[in-house]
Amino acid sequence: MTEQVTKGIKISVQTEFEGTFYKNDTIHYAFSYEIAIENQSEDTTQLLARKWTIKDALNDEETIAGDGVLGETPIIQPGGLHNYRSGCVLRSPHGAMKGFYLMENISTSNQFKVRIPTFKLSASFAQN
Question: Coil, helix or strand for 126?
Answer without folding.
Answer: helix
